[in-house]
Amino acid sequence: MRNQSLSAFKEPTLWQAALPLLVLICALAGSVYLFGEDSSYGPNQIALWCAAGVAIIIGFINNYSWEDIEEGIKEGISVALGALLIILAVGSLIGTWLLSGTVPTMIYYGLELLNPGWFYAASALICGIIALAIGSSWTTAATIGVALMGVAAGMGLSPAITAGAVVSGAYFGDKMSPLSDTTNLAPAVAGTELFAHIRYMAYTAGPAYLITLIIFFFLGLNVEATASALQLETMQLELTNAYNIGWEMLVPLAVLLYLAATRKPALPTVFFGALLGGVWAVLFQPELITQLAGDDSAVGSLKVVWLALTDGVTVETGSEQLDSLLSGGGMSSMLNTVWLILSAMAFGAVVEKIGLLQRLISGVLGFAKSTGNLITATLFTCFGANVLTADQYMAIVIPGRMFREEYEKRGLDARVLSRTLEDSGTLTSALIPWNTCGAFMMGTLAISPLEYAPFAFFNWLTPLIAIFYGYTGIRILRRDTPNHSPENASS
């Protein structure tokens, strides 16, 4: 019954807690094996539902009623509703920015300014600066990231490495920005102050980002663009034939970045940017709109912009490569991403509601005898929470609540926990295809996290550095004592 006492619920055993995870891993592996790149367009969702079914059966065995589990699913899905609405709005934004010439203009100037030899490093650096300024990895990927993917395609560079550079830079800037929601969430959960948390994160994020830029620099040195200078000039000419190109086309981008930097709410900011893109299309791309509408009437223009918001655009320039870059977007393009997230959140909600995740974490604590083991256990728990709950906020909040007392017992400063939560909870979220962040990046950059994850160097180097610090005692702060300042502590 809904009002059943918590004492009536059985605590799950360790094998019960592990079983749904094992089912999920096997089902996802089978999905990828059978369907390859198409696995995220339906098969992975079914794998998540099957694993959720196993978890529900375990819940029934442990005296949870369907009403209890259903309530947990509703609560779990509600956590992701804000993100789902933003994802739909981003789809509309991409559609109207393709129509307005905003993205084509960024591609045009990118082809002109970026050299293939340092393109990857420059992409990571540009995305890092933008994300630091606005505090959003999602907005950075959906704007600058989309344009950089287009530039890479124009130069014949690797889309997987480019996406890895975009994600690395976007997550470094997001992680180090006081405007970021996760950067505010982690210290709040751990019980420390925002700017102290950011300064302390620099010890792991700084070296990881520097190493990342160096790796991308050397990757660029060994790359030869498959597109010649003549081909790039031809692509730029085709862009100017299809669009009116100019710096004024970047006004929607500037407005969006300003609104994000001034901490306006994400959903209205993104959708306003989409609507502004539609207005810009009518003002600056009348020839293209007339071509797409079949007439030059106001009703025809309205219809084209409306369809760009809903279904995106399809542009025909005569170049197959360019057409693929300039066609897409719309809310409908994000529906599969929404489907994936809903399925993942339902699974994660069941696992959390019936106590399976908590049981796994309690089992982990038994092995975490040293500080290095504790930090490593926290990092892997955050990663596991990203896999199981499919949401970076859950991967920060749940481990944060469960490990906080243990960190306090061992005399560790709260910043150690807050930094560790971000080093894994925030950063590994983009590497998991069914996580809200991984699904968003897949829908926005049009490439699976399984393909770009090996090149998202920053996202997996940072946890490794955190583990190294944990076992060596470097920059591991202790709580204040009369003769012990945490700012100077190193062990």
Automatic annotation (TrEMBL):
Pfam families: Na_H_antiporter. PANTHER family: MALATE-2H(+)/NA(+)-LACTATE ANTIPORTER (PTHR33451), MALATE-2H(+)_NA(+)-LACTATE ANTIPORTER (PTHR33451:SF3). Residues 169-474 form the Na+/H+ antiporter NhaC-like C-terminal domain. It comes from the Bacteria. Its main location: membrane. This is Malate-2H(+)/Na(+)-lactate antiporter. It is found in: Cell membrane. Belongs to the NhaC Na(+)/H(+) (TC 2.A.35) antiporter family. One of its GO terms (molecular function) is antiporter activity. GO terms for cellular component: plasma membrane. Keywords: Antiport, Cell membrane, Membrane, Transmembrane, Transmembrane helix, Transport. It is a multi-pass membrane protein. The chain crosses the membrane at residues 12-34, 46-65, 77-98, 118-139, 146-172, 200-221, 242-260, 266-284, 334-351, 452-471.
